[in-house]
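We store sequence, tokenised fold; for instance:
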Amino acid sequence: MRFNQFSYLPVSHSQVLRELSQLGLKLVSEQSSKKQLEQFVRWSFFTYTNTDYALSTLAVDKETDLLSFFQSDKELTADIFYTVVFQLLGFNYLIDFEDVEQFRKETGFPIIYGDLIENIYHLLNTRTKKGNTLIDQLVSDGLITEGNHYHYFNGKSLATFSSHDVIREVVYVESRVDTDEDGLPDLVKVSIIRPRYDGQIPAVMTASPYHQGTNDKASDKALYKMEGELEVKPPHTIELEEPKLNLVEPLSQAKVVSEAEEKLTHINSSYTLNDYFLPRGFANLYVSGVGTKDSQGLMTNGDYQQIEAYKNVIDWLNGRCRAFTDHTRKRQVKADWSNGKVATTGISYLGTMSNGLATTGVDGLEVIIAEAGISSWYNYYRENGLVTSPGGYPGEDFDSLAELTYSRNLLAGDYIRANEAHQADLERVKEKLDRKTGDYNQFWHDRNYLLNAQKVKAEVVFTHGSQDWNVKPLHVYQLFQALPDHIKKHLFFHNGAHVYMNNWQSIDFRESMNALLTKKLLNLETDYQLPSVIWQDNTTPQTWQSLPDFGNQTDSQTFPLGTEEQVIQNHYEDTDFERFGKTYQNFNTELYQGKVNQITVDLPVTEDLFLNGQVQLKLRIKSSTNKGLLSAQLLELGQKKYLQPYPAVLTARTMDNGRYHMLENLCELPFSPSPQRVITKGYLNLQNRNNLLTVEEVKADEWMEIQFDLQPTIYKLKQDDTLRLVLYTTDFEITIRDNTDYCLTVDLAQSSITIPSQKELASHE
């Protein structure tokens, strides 16, 4: 394990004493450090009647247990202190560690032995081996009575609310959209789990069209065959209109009642970060939105109609919209329990909705925690004038996603009433999304949140993986860059794929979110600040650093690509073409081995290089015909240990989200051997070689000068590492599988790759 603390808030000595005293630990500054340590350790073993026994189970060295040490005249030393506190954090002496100084350095332990009272305070805010902070572990064990009142420690809310006796209810929020055009504002189901509290509390809200279930069979039927010919597009300029949103007014009167009438039973799946916040005094809201089971309307995936309906839930929490007890709309219920402050959570589509909600500027949305979210839907299903599939989902497009998320069809009655309108809407969608050309158009323009980035008022937290080829890093990069200067923005940029990171051992993500949400939603006055960028170092396990920015580097390094012309054949023999089409993973493997139709350029790294931003290719290229697609990947080549993209379970069900509440696995990205590591990639239609809105002619055998930006990333390379650039045409996982007999020629002597580099590293201590 390695400690990386971003949640700890340094406070004054007087506050340290005050907060410890509130926990029942009254330490006296005039006492010796040894006495202070003994008092603390005995206090921490409050579940024992006989604390002598508890102390006897710990050791200070290979010959002496802790009880014997406290009974002796032996002085407290730094080595003894560290030996004891490591054991309190769950590490086994003589098994997990023996040389305490070496272990302290290896783990990056954040506490420097000195003022013992402040050391103890810091220790309580430090993570144990099992993933909880020590104070959270003690509270979970019963240190503070579960009294449904707020208790704070180091600027964070403690788990003092019952998670077993909560209010579980359902309401139906009246939106301001009528997506099915039936003359009534669409109702949206809201599932609520909230602690019992005599007062007003904030909410964490997860906007997820998956929450009420998914229609996998219909989605699978809607997948597209990827084999086909790349379209030759007539040259033109694409014209767009400003997106419009038509809102509707509320209808009729309704009697106000004091409580919701429908009880929430089982929920499809909770998000464990929400589970963590529930016993800390935050309501959990799960909202599936329009076009989902038990709600109304059509699935308008990604546009501002869908966003508006989620926004109206926040409006209801602030008294600006109505919610009804059921679909009759006769009785409305107010959110009297809400203090109006909301944070959003969730990954992928859920993070996407957070991004969209933030760009509405809705009052009450204080923080978004957007994990691997889309910022422009075009960049999810298209790229640079090409139809592309999200990584791992070949053949998926917008309409298959609409079928997946239109869960109203899971209810037979709703199927009878509304499927005809849903299918008619899908036909309109299929026409508008334009799989033929892959061009940007009004349909995608209506689903581009970047256009409204200047409206964001909430504090923004992003998480994203450098190996996320589903929602590619461009999404977070572009939104991060587009946010107004006055907005506080933060990015946790890890080395994983499309994954959550709230249960990783190496980073106190959930505790950092607790510090932020306690400040923003519970109005606790603290000086807590997150860094702008928190980056997971790719060169070593469990290491995180703070950086000032993502991109915007003034330094760069340019590598020439060669001295000759090389050719990429597009066509494959039928057996290979079929083989790669059946299993795209085989294509990827052989691509990295240099066995497919490709140009491979190896570039030795002559000095340490810290990539931060977008790699740019400048190529002199020609096609043997009037079209062409270009794929590119940049790898670090060489058999060695790399961080792997998917977390592995370190220990099962050890992280406690409250008081024995929703235990979850403690995970981490493995650091293990591999022959190469993908750094970045990208895809380009040569007809869109200058910009998205200009479609240009490709003339056979005529040279073109192109600039091609790959996916943004942050990556550290060391002297003597090797970069490998791979240029090819069809990508069997991502692009159209066009087996036309043409070739691309690249003049390597007139081509280069430029890497934006960060010269100074702001390490987090």
The chain has a mean pLDDT of 97. The longest helix spans residues 412-433. The first strand starts at residue 152 and ends at 153. Residues 13-144 form one domain.
